[in-house]
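Researcher: I'd like a candidate sequence for this fold, 129 residues long. If you have to choose between options at a position, lean toward the conservative one.
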């Protein structure tokens, strides 16, 4: 297993750089354990679901550096980077990961703000008088 290879995952403004090593199942994000970095249990489960589906939970260590965006974008970026790493290192699992949809990038981005409006679509309160 090449532990120097970095796999990239993206979502919204977030970019994650993920490394995979053989180990005991530790997940480190920006130098912190996953429980400390990500507070929400459903977000943690989404990241570990990739490992659970491929039966690699407890067999590999995940080291991720993530920047930009919020926690939802960051967890999706990590999930995608992890899926790409597993596909490259374990080619026989690619079909399973593809069927689950982990390799598909969610291309939705924030809509730009328009002039004359408060946000992209929200307008200021109309006053007749």
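Model: Candidate sequence:
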């Amino acid at each position: 297993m090449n532990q120097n290879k970095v796999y990239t995952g993206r979502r919204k403004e977030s970019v994650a750089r993920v490394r995979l090593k053989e180990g005991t199942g530790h997940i480190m994000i920006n130098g912190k354990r996953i429980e400390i970095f990500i507070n929400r249990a459903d977000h943690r489960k989404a990241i570990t679901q990739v490992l659970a589906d491929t039966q690699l939970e407890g067999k590999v260590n995940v080291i991720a550096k993530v920047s930009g965006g919020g926690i939802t974008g960051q967890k999706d970026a990590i999930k995608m980077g992890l899926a790409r790493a597993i596909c490259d290192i374990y080619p026989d699992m690619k079909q399973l990961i593809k069927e689950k949809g982990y390799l598909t990038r969610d291309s939705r981005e924030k809509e730009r703000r328009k002039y004359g409006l408060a946000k992209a679509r929200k307008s200021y309160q109309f006053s007749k008088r």
